Amino acid sequence: MLVKRILFVAFALGGMLQVRAQSAKHVVLISIDGLRPEFYLDPAWPAPHLRQLKQQGVYARQVVGVFPTVTYPSHTSIVTGQPPGKHGIYYNTPFEAPKGRWYWEDSSIKTPTLWKAVKHAGLTSGAVMWPVTVGAPIDYNFPVRRADGDEKTDQLSVTRPYITPAGMLDQMAAAGNGTVTADDFKYRDVDRTIGRMGAFIFKQYQPALLAIHFIQADHAQHEHGRDAPEVKTAVAVIDSMIGRVIAAVEESGQTSNTTIIVTGDHGFVDATQSVAPNVLLEKNGLISGDDWKAKFYTTGGSAFLYTKKAGDAATTQQVEQLLRQLPHGDQWFRIVTKKELEAIGANPEVELALAMKKGFVASNAIKGPLIRTKPLGGAHGYYPDFDEIYTGFIAAGNGIKKGSTLARLRMLDIAPVICRLLGIPPIGNGTVALPDIFSNR
């Protein structure tokens, strides 16, 4: 009996020590919207902190994303280890949603998230501007919530009711980090604001998991193309804010206990032409005013076919024939079959998709020309099977082997890696069988 008690006490103490050890570990997950690997591989880009992290840890030359390669599905895959077809965030905005209705709420996600896994392990989490986190079980959270889908409106007043804890920004000001105003969310300042909040959350609360989403590199590439001077300016600002977060870790005395991961959601493609597949459907009687038998929903470099009657094989076949009969269609896009969509884990509600070729984007327009010229701008949303659309990955710090390079990593592998680093049960269908990443601990 005494032996059993001793074993029980030893087991209990061991469990307590394990929890304490885990709670002393931290992962800072940084997403750069529109991150391309050359930001840290090419010294011409103004990113000294990214290159320093790359030298101190592990980096990937390519990270293969999900389909479509857009922000909200990708960020949800990062924190679930699941593709859109499983986690349920198919695009940035739901099909036929009213104006301003995006996938804001955590309740839209159908599979376990890192936030939930961390909470179930008795640890804490924080997030700044991470998509699909309104109402998420995040202890220190400044989520994304906008009015009317317009990123130029007052982000702060719209988001304030969803901040947890409610007084977090007041605590930030009281701690000498300055007040946060509506002007701080204008594009010229937004990433500085995000970096400032991220650094404060780590230093003040030291959560086990802190996720930070920087957005200006995406905006600059959309507006000006992949390699415009404005993109380099955006990257320089983001890199400086990553430096600020690293400094907060150091000032907290947690450098040896912290892993910093930098990743992204998609790359970018310069596009000068737009294809409107719904024009083809309207001309052939499949769309008539508000009524339709088949309709494409487009998101950058892809278009997804819905049929009014789910699984309408005859209508799907008709659409596919119309597409294949286009004289130059194969120069604009390739058809992604239902079987391919299932294999890559895309939206199960659609019958087929169009993967646009480089230089082309898809449009939701129903009237006008099928193909039209557009001003030069960057785009994403493409099928993740070519260099320009891949994103990147760097990991450095606690638990990470120094000096390793991965030729390729899947976005779905990131959540299981974070779970292993935090010592919590894994989520997702990725793999932690990545011996070149982890150090012996």
TrEMBL record:
InterPro entries tied to this protein: Alkaline_phosphatase_core_sf, Phosphodiest/P_Trfase
Q: Which SUPFAM superfamilies match?
A: Alkaline phosphatase-like
Q: Keyword set for this entry?
A: Signal
TM region positions: none
User: What residue stretch is flagged as signal peptide?
Assistant: 1-21
Q: Which PANTHER family match?
A: BIS(5'-ADENOSYL)-TRIPHOSPHATASE (PTHR10151:SF120), ECTONUCLEOTIDE PYROPHOSPHATASE/PHOSPHODIESTERASE (PTHR10151)
Q: What is this protein called?
A: Ectonucleotide pyrophosphatase/phosphodiesterase
Species of origin reads Niabella pedocola
